[in-house]
Amino acid sequence: MRRISILGSTGSIGVSTLRLLDETGRLGEDYVIEALIGGRNVELLVEQALKYRPAITVLGDAAQWSRFRELIGNAGLAIACGEEAVCAAAGRKADWVMAAIVGIAGLKPTWAAAGTGAVLALANKESLVCCGRALIERVEAHGGRVLPVDSEHNAIYQVLDPSQRDRVSRLILTASGGPFLGRTREDLKSVTVEQALKHPNWSMGAKITIDSATLANKGLEFIEAAYLFDVPADKISVLVHPQSVIHSMVEYKDGSSLAQLGSPDMRVPISYCLAWPNRIDWQAPRLDLAARGTLTFAEPDLDAFPMLRLARQALEAGQGMPTVFNAANEVCVQAFLDRKIAFLQIAEFVESAMMRAQLPSIPSKDHVNRDTNDGMMISALDIDRDIRRLMGELFAESRLRA
Q1: Interacting residues of 235 by C-beta distance below 8 A, sequence separation 6+
Q2: How far apart, in whole angstroms, are the C-alpha atoms of residue 229 and residue 222?
Q3: What span, in angstroms and rounded, lies between the C-alpha atoms of 125 and 132?
């Protein structure tokens, strides 16, 4: 019996994880839910709690606590609310933890889960972007393991032979290209929020969908790949692959390229992480290559989609710059969704933030990795706070110029 906690159970990854558990038919037999942690979707979290009856259910949004308690009623379930409760639940002893809280909001609970010794199924890429190898080292120091959930990194994990690591020439991440594939920079000047939210292949939350439209999501995955697989930026490439069938590739020095293929369904990489080191026999969507027909590839257009270039620059700069990139992007995506800035301004403001950022010194590796010290996490949160303040200043300056 494996105890499972899901951080971000009401988001798209969390919902897909619970759906997969239902479809395997092994809940109560091989798996039991330890903790469910949701954000603001009270109704869905209550529905999940009543169905799966975890040891603890936590709502992140304290403003909806009374509504949460009212809907739970006298179900006899342990419930809690607020940031401290979220981190406490994330740090409960479990065998497998899905870390799927989107954005920097997921950093503290993911860091807490990293200290439990559990297998950490990592869907919160921002935690790795902001803390780098320190997060992986924390997991491993406590006897756990990081398994990547993002389809691209999951693909690389499946085909990268650890014994052949020194023979890897490069990692190739694939990108769908999002809803604006083939558009020029001029074409993108007038795109709307509604257009940006129409992803051709994947069903995701609003923030990740906008990130896909700007290629910021691929930029974050670029940084994530460098930390996950401990490779430099010049050994990572990105190819646009609109069909989303080949999820990523590993190119070896002898000219061989190994790829993992599958339907664009997040339950596939989730199932790999859930069953690792085995595989689950479930009614997975089967890949019919004959029906798919042609697979195409192209280099990304960095003029129309500069976020990928900025992500590479952030990784190469290091010293907290990936956190700057992430924080500025989060603020800009929300501003775009709120119709306060234009689509192309997302990259413009992110670049301005990277140029203006004043970064503190980052804790040394030895300092960070002591069990009693959360130095890297705290440093990342400090940088995130400062950049959000800076973004307010940049927005105000922009309005004055207008």
Answers
A1: 168, 169, 170, 171
A2: 11
A3: 10
Q: Is 28 left (phi over 0), alpha (psi -120 to 50) or beta?
A: left
Record the pTM.
0.92
Amino acid occupying residue 304: A
Closest CA to 35 of 83, 77, 84, 82: 77
Rounded to whole angstroms, the Cα distance separating 83 from 99 reads 15
Which is higher by pLDDT, 201 or 77?
A: 77
Instruction: Please give, one letter per residue, the 3-state secondary structure of 103-145.
Output: CHHHHHHHHHHHCCCCEEEECCHHHHHHHCHHHHHHHHHCCCE
- Token pair, residue 351, equals 């670049």
- Answer whether 150's CB lies under 8 Å from 202's CB: no
Cis peptide before 277 (omega within 30 of 0): yes
The one-letter amino acid at 117: G
Which strands make up the sheet holding 119-122, listed edge to edge?
A: 79-81, 56-59, 31-38, 2-7, 96-99, 119-122, 145-148
Between helix 345-356 and helix 321-337 the angle, nearest 10°, is 150
- Is 328 in contact with 268 (CB distance < 8 Å)? no
Nearest in space to 49 (alpha carbons), one of 62, 39, 36: 36
Q: Which residue matches tokens 């919160």?
A: 124
Q: Compute the distance between CA of residue 39 and CA of residue 7 in angstroms, rounded to an integer.
A: 9
How far, in Å, CA of 219 to CA of 114, rounded? Answer: 24
> What is the C-alpha to C-alpha distance for residues 3 and 97, in angstroms, rounded to an integer?
9
Which helix (H) or strand (E) segment holds residue 3: the answer is strand 2-7
Pair 225, 231: CB distance under 8 Å: yes
For 282, phi then psi, to 5°, come to -140, 170
Torsion of CA 207, 211, 170, 118, to 10 degrees: -10
Instruction: State pLDDT tens for residues 337-364.
Output: 999 999 999 999 999 999 999 887 555 4
On whether the CB atoms of residues 238 and 300 are closer than 8 A, the answer is: yes
**pLDDT tens profile 138-183:** 999 999 999 999 999 999 999 999 899 999 999 999 999 889 999 9
Q: Give pLDDT tens digits for 206-240.
A: 898 999 999 999 999 999 999 999 999 999 999 99
Distance in angstroms (rounded) separating the CA atoms of residues 46 and 27: 19
